[in-house]
Amino acid sequence: MRYRIFGDKLPAVTIEFEAGESIYTQAGGMTWMTDNFTMETNVKGGMMKGLGRMLTGESLFMATYTARAPKAELTLASSFPGAILPIELDGSKTWIAQKSSFLCATPGVELSTYVSKFKVGLFGGEGFLLQKLAGRGIVFLEIDGTLVEKELQPGERIKVDTGNVAAFESTVKYEVETVKGFTNILFGGEGLFLTVLEGPGKVYLQTVNVSGFAARLKPFLPAKG
Question: How, if at all, do strands 165-169 and 95-97 pair?
Fold first, then answer.
């Protein structure tokens, strides 16, 4: 299997398959493909895992595309301006990603729901329900805005607005910190809480917070009559 990521602000990925190779994505996620695939749609992993995926922004049903011939090509496009991030899993590491970031993966990758600690879920907003990626294979994630990669050393910490955390290795400690000070609450513009990531492990950040972006647009949208 080979792939090519193209496009600038609205990227897409074209994957070239050998006969018998497959990927799965949410139903309706395919953009275009050559005429040599079979498609099977089901609740991958069972109903409970399917319902869990729905809570993280994915569809209940997943579509699996399998190439019937060599050099079959399938293209998937991002749904928001940003980047497409490929992550290769070798079975030794687990990744945690923001909800709605999953684009597609090979069958050996298991997509499930990751529920963060109660404190994080209660106060962390988008950090409550995340996506867990495990197994072997390659997974493609949608990143909002510009992608930034950081390798945190043991004990090294970084504070991030929750919506700007794209993905991180499960070795990274994930917590929420209260922003102290009355003036910070009123005028800081960062809300009451920040996500704290502590190494060791790799972290991917994104420059756009979709929820914040949507909130800025809301005053300009027509009011419902």
Answer: antiparallel
